[in-house]
Amino acid sequence: MRTTRAALAAVASAVTLLGLCAAPVAADPPQPPRHITGKVIRGGADGRPHELFCPAPFQAYSGGFTIKARKGARFIEEPADLLESRPNDTATGWIVAVRKGQLLPSPHPHRAHPRIEPADLVVHVVCTQDMPTHGM
Known about the structure:
Blueprint lengths: L1 H20 L12 E4 L12 E4 L5 E10 L5 E2 L5 E7 L5 E7 L1 E4 L10 E4 L1 E9 L8
Antiparallel strand pairs: 1-9, 2-6, 3-9, 4-7, 5-6, 7-8
């Protein structure tokens, strides 16, 4: 009888211990979304893809870009061509490919021909830890 009671007590202790081990661990509270602004990419509105990453463990939720003309320059009249604006394949960053020209003043005052070069580009990404399920 004593052996049975000792065995039952040991089993009860093990079950209690397992229950404590299996108890859910309080998770860190979710972080609010972060807006990350990349550095100015000189001539980056050249139509090639440029990528900005989220810090770990965040994932890209949204993104975009800003184009800028350099000091003393002005945009050409044609609208910008947006070729790509999307998350990368692992959703860890945002990819932008845009084409927009700028007219730079001639470095030689006696020449009236301005140079056309790609405008500068800044990529933006909104990063979040909790990806929305969108009705899943």
